[in-house]
Automatic annotation (TrEMBL):
Protein name: Cysteine hydrolase
InterPro entries linked: Isochorismatase-like_dom (IPR000868), Isochorismatase-like_hydrls (IPR050272), Isochorismatase-like_sf (IPR036380)
Keyword Acetylation annotated: no
GO MF annotations, alphabetized: hydrolase activity
Protein species of origin: Rhizobium chutanense
């Protein structure tokens, strides 16, 4: 069986059951003037992973393997936005409010869009998710089942919130999960380090972590 060099031990990869999930690489989280910046975050920490995320996407596309993109966003009428979520964060600029790139985290608005460098190709799955985890209130589970996917490689942001939450959801559903370390990031380096440690603790209790180059090397032989 093929393996990817990983921590805490090699990831036993099955290329015909493998997919990439790119979590929330959106303008509102990565560009100046977006929601992430409005909360006082250094968005340059997010944009610096774009080249590695792009390499990973291209590697999966070249290997003919599925690439799935997620976007955290809500309906224009806010019917899927719990008040408890809206009331957190920056009190002067909340989800649904008008921001520099349209209404913040609302489906169809410019700021909600995926960064142009990482834009989905025609036919690639895009999951609009109202929560932190990509399985909550979405069709992701059905999509993966239809495609026969049982192993997931994760990239995107932020490591400790939407990425880790989705990995935990996937782990509970029986998927084998691998996090691409250079293709994920947090606004807080200590949070990323802690999330990686938690994911691979106790014998990959949530999943594995690996370097992008090692993942791409495996894809080259898929």
């Amino acid at each position: 069986m093929a393996e990817i060099k990983a921590e805490p031990f090699a990831f036993p990869v099955k290329h015909d059951q493998l997919a990439l999930i790119v979590i929330d690489m959106q303008r509102d989280f990565a560009e100046p003037g977006g929601f992430g910046a409005s909360l006082g975050n250094d968005v340059s920490r997010i944009t610096r992973i774009v080249p590695d995320v792009k390499r990973l996407i291209q590697g999966f596309r070249y290997a003919g393997l599925p690439v799935i993109h997620t976007m955290e966003c809500h309906r224009p009428d806010l019917s899927d936005l719990p008040p408890a979520k809206r009331d957190r964060g920056n009190p002067s600029l909340r989800i649904g409010d008008e921001g520099p790139m349209g209404r913040i985290l609302i489906s169809g608005e410019p700021g909600t869009a995926i960064l142009p460098e990482l834009a989905p190709l025609k036919g690639e799955v895009i999951i609009e998710k109202p929560g932190k985890g990509a399985f909550y209130a979405t069709e992701l589970g059905d999509v993966l089942q239809q495609k026969g996917i049982k192993q997931l490689v994760f990239a995107g942001v932020t490591t400790e919130v939407c990425v880790q939450t989705t990995m935990r959801e996937a782990n509970d559903r029986g998927y084998e999960c691998l996090l691409a370390e250079e293709a994920t990031e947090s606004y807080f380096p200590e949070f990323k380090a802690a999330a990686i440690a938690m994911i691979r603790a106790q014998g990959a209790i949530v999943g594995w972590t690996a370097h992008v180059d090692d993942i791409l090397e495996s894809l080259a032989h898929a």
